[in-house]
Amino acid sequence: MKYFLYWGCSLEGTGANFLVSLKPACEALAMEFEEIEDWNCCGASVSYAGANDLSIKVLNARNLALAEAKGSYDIVAPCSSCYIQMIKVNHEIQEDPELLKQVNECLAEGGLSYKGGIKVRHIQDVLYNDVGVDKIKEKVIKPLNGLKVAGYVGCQSVRPYGEYDSVDKPVVQDRLLEALGAEAVPFPKKIRCCGSGIFLPEIDYCLELVKDILEDAINHGAELVSTVCPMCAMNLEMYQGRVNEKYGTDFDIPIVYLTQLMAVAFGLDMKKDAALNYNIIPPEGILQAALGH
Amino acid sequence: MEKNVNYDPSFAQEVFENVDAGEEIKMCMNCGVCAGSCPLRFNMDYPPRQIFQMIRLGKREEVLNAKSIMLCTSCYTCKVRCPRSIPVIDVMHGLAHYAIKQGILTRRDTANFGREFWNQVYRLGRIDEKDLPRRVFFAAGFIEGIKSTLKYLDMGLKLLLHRRMKLLPERKIKGIQSLRKMLDKAEKMGKGGAAA
Ligand code: SF4
Ligand code: SF4
Ligand code: SF4
Q: Residue B170: what pLDDT?
């Protein structure tokens, strides 16, 4: 199974543990990736402050056009913002051929064109629907032995299109966690927004969102929170100290990427492959205990 | 006199014509479902439903100066829930873009953050996660910049120690010149942000 991998800017920086763990974990499942050569940033969810809507669409269409010129594989976009930005262009040009014309007029300025033939997929989508839980289970040699994990879905990985999971009761991440031997704890705030891209400039307002999400996860028994988005991971992990200062709480719960848990359960190297040392709140202790070491 | 300044009967038309996704509000039936959807609703001055109502009433200044249009977290809850399938998010972003373009900086940090983000995309084709906060912090002035830098220094260091910060500055993508040509064209062709 071959895909284009569009990892975006965050996964080279603050979300590095996502990319480092995603590659070996997916390769263990016989997935193959090709980079979109000379890709550009997706504009994330905040570019509207400086750019009009068409500019943001053209920005994303450039990546789609570059991929389309190279092959017909689906694009996997692990960052939720990247995913939503790209899939949005695809949806909108399908509904509106006039828009496709406009986009192409702009792309032509740089010698590119896009027909609209490339599919954009979320990493959870391909893991669940292309690989499947059975194949994932086969690869597990160190099951997580009932470790209680809160699978935090957030917003943009399922909303608004619901391409592969329910928009209000998503289950895919939980099924994937269970395939690794974890117990996916239900918690109502799993689809509540964490503040996303405006967290840093609106930190005074957004800390409460993080507090509510973590509180909910912990109250439902979670020992660990898993995510599939670099912004969720950043907001939930990095600001725990700030939340504690503001609300007098004592949060210290590790936030890991689903792909890090996959790498651990597949018996890959804890550092080199699972990138656990990249985490600021260390998850090793809890994971070792679950694995029975 | 004052009343005339504040009451602009052509504002709805202006929104339909110049704001990205502005025409979408024509379908709004004022049910208020979207109001309960925004994560930062308790910090908003008007829920989206009321913003749309105010556009119809011609309350130009109130709408363009509203905090709400700057506090959308892009969670897409509204778009999923709205019984009329209105992309409330796109309207909020469109209004924010339109207001900022006219120099209205109701949420200064968020506006600067978004603008710097876009400037960097235009300059490099990529985002430099070290450089971005620095520019945003210092956009508010030198002293403010130093204060904010110190406030977040601990987090920056932690990220650096855990290999989650690129050490080298981000370089331009190879096709930066052609990307800029595409974006220049889109800026001209696009609807959003056209002068009033
Ligand atoms: S969402 Fe973030 S990571 Fe993805 S391309 Fe955009 S800036 Fe880069
Ligand atoms: S949910 Fe839709 S129809 Fe109802 S008030 Fe909001 S935008 Fe209008
Ligand atoms: S996307 Fe924006 S407008 Fe829509 S519910 Fe979320 S915060 Fe509110």
A: 81
